[in-house]
Amino acid sequence: MTIEAEPKAPRTDTRKRILKTAASLFATHGYAGTSIRDLSQELGLTKAALYYHFTSKEDILAELIEQPVLAIRGVMEQEWDLTSSEQRGLFVEAVLRAMSTCDREVVAVFKDPTVAPLIDQSVAMTGVTTQLAVRLAMGLSGVDDPADVEPRHLVRAIAAVGAGYEAANGWRVVYPECETFSDMDLKAISGYVTAVLDAESPDPEVEARS
Amino acid sequence: MTIEAEPKAPRTDTRKRILKTAASLFATHGYAGTSIRDLSQELGLTKAALYYHFTSKEDILAELIEQPVLAIRGVMEQEWDLTSSEQRGLFVEAVLRAMSTCDREVVAVFKDPTVAPLIDQSVAMTGVTTQLAVRLAMGLSGVDDPADVEPRHLVRAIAAVGAGYEAANGWRVVYPECETFSDMDLKAISGYVTAVLDAESPDPEVEARS
DNA sequence: GTCTATAAGAAGATAGAC
DNA sequence: GTCTATCTTCTTATAGAC
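Above: the input entities. Below: the structure tokens describing the complete assembly.
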């Protein structure tokens, strides 16, 4: 019995090829902007072939985001005291690590406006980035109820999450050969986030708002 | 001749109503995720009525983004020495001011992946946020050619622009009654951007990358 | 596992009545 | 300025041959 590199069914990587290509197209053209036809042409397959591997377009999306969404939810369900800058940094790193459990192009899909409602149905999780921002803002305000968050802290947290999200997302463009984040990378990105959270820039004027 | 509040043709605000509603829907569901049918139903009109006011769906989009894109391009075409943090702050404020020339919901459209290629054709401007990031990264690296930008500066600038973009975009959610940015608001947002640009967080490891 | 062929509907867009 | 009706193309998805 000699060693054979490809045993007998090496072509069943089609499923993975589909997921990989779908992630790339969704990231580039958006979920709604990518049709099954686009995807099948890019793969050199027919539409029908895709429907052999997946039951629907949404099914492809669901499989793409399942892992990272579950991982992030796991991190969010832990107990976190986010009132200190250090703890917030660790929290952000944990989230980034959870996000790294998926193909890197999938990250771009998280903010696709046409994807959010679909995530709700399948995995029961609304606006990942929004939830993160609210969580961090609660830490900044030192409150336990999202409703008690100070608006100025919320915009600040939204900006901070935006920095982290774009950094993680831009990583694949700037460092195409980098497959996963190193610890240094994570430190760098979470550094951007905490920089915004802890910035001594003037907070927006609160007086003029009701 | 007495003063009459509504002279005689007050219903020609339909065009503006369309633009307003389109901006809202595009921001919420994305450009590709919003159909002419969705838009007409939201407006209580028929599709044909929309096509009386605009020649195409893309025409609506073009009119929405024309002003801010021209304004931002105007700022970008100026001479800027972005090697100092102060100058970068002023640059960012100028860009934000230019962005404020449009309906606030239009801001969300700028990052719609299905919109970017359409902007290219109509206004000849690719990836507004990417261009901003490159410009700021050039300042950080102290170079005049985008090709000479250091990767670590580019990711940092991408994160910084992300912070500013999300702050500007999140503003309308956190402060719904706020129509335009005050000077204090602009200072706050540009503060988030410069916080990332000037953060002393560890830059990503450069060694492992080619 | 992949194909051809096709259904059923929604998309963007137009013609012409009122 | 808005309507009804229609056209064409594209969409997701299925049936059945190979």
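Note for the figure: Confidence is low (pLDDT under 50) at residues 5-10 of chain A.
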